[in-house]
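User:
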Amino acid sequence: TIYPGFKLYKGDAVFTAGPKSTSTKFFTAGHPAYTDTSTNTVYSNTNSGQRKVVGTMSSAVFGSNGDKSTITISQIVQAFNLPNTNKFVIGSDTYTYTTNYIVGTAIEMHGAFSAISAGVIQDTNESIYIETYDVTVTNLARASYTCMKGDSGAGVFSSNAFNVPGYCYGIQSIGAFAGNSEVSSYSYFSKN
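Assistant: Predicted structure:
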């Protein structure tokens, strides 16, 4: 079963599974679609460590409407599925989506590399130019939580969301890394 925070692979790109979208789809970051254009097939590791097909990346957005894509679970390979409800791998509670962004709200990012990284919403209307891709990404919020490379696509949830009914605020997109640091100073996420 694929839950928010699981590690994903697409060609050379490594990123994170985000929140569930439908019974057969979930969200992640859009920029892995542009990092490696050789394939749209997404993989993850099974409990036994084997890399298996998860599904196909589609509907990638990276620019004027944020940084988000959808992955459709493979109905052919059937190595993975999604949980029946919007839930986490631990805890018993679920999340719903929100578009109510308030500066100072406590949130946490569930990344494949950083695990759970807590912070607050710092700004709700950000745009960032990414020189590597020559693109300006809009529809972003800035947050004080840290991230690591590979956390892109992680769900951003209300604080302690797996223990109390919570909210999903969006998808982890960009980290602000100083020099050669492996941990960002702060982060940006694509709003729902």
